[in-house]
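Provenance

Sequences were taken from public entries as deposited. Structures were produced by running a predictor on each sequence independently, with no templates supplied. The record for Glutamine amidotransferase from Gemmobacter lanyuensis is shown for reference.
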Amino acid sequence: MLHCKNIKFGTPMLIGILQTGQSPDVLIEASGDYPDMFMRLLGDQGLTFRTYRVLDMQFPASVAECDGWLITGSRFGVYEDHAFIPPLEAFIREAYAKAVPMVGVCFGHQIIAQALGGRVEKFAGGWSVGPTEYDFGGRSIRLNAWHQDQVVEKPAVAEVAGCNDFCQNAALVYGDRIFTVQAHPEFRSEFVDGLMKTRGKGVVPDALMAKAGARLDLPLDDQILARQIADFFKAPRQAA
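Predicted structure for Glutamine amidotransferase:
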């Protein structure tokens, strides 16, 4: 029996953006902060948004405060010791148990996996940067990447929805409750260029950044992911 609590006819779904990191200050004026990027990506998908800076310990009062949740990227590692990580993991587990839909991107993808029994680590194979192709069930989708950490063991409750040779768990689905992606559909290529010039220096190998820079003018499939994310949020789901 379908549970239709997420369908409010005539009322757009309210998506709570759980902000776990922030854009470099020098890039905010041109590109906005992470919540701005998601609102721009999903702005024509019939959703409304509310932001919670969980990195500053600003958490929702309950998992029912919004109709769905989106966890952003971050420069932090999910395995690091930060005050917001344990309560965020508890929030993820409660949302999953109560079938409140959730989407995670990059750090969000990783923290959801870790909270539900997966393993994340700094990948020995190095970084993935810039326009990158992923196999989503036989369909090639190009998205911007910016990560070294990866989900190296997925939770038992998750299934792989997207991958490539470098990142085997690039997208995961947890039944009808959670959808996560390692890549950044919200990152425009000019923002990745800015990241390479700020956070990338001395961290990402120069040769890799040069290779990524040469690909930044390639078209992206971010709108395909935007529709997929919106469709996921709006879908009727099984009762918890």
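The longest helix spans residues 85-97.
The two ends are 11 Å apart (CA to CA).
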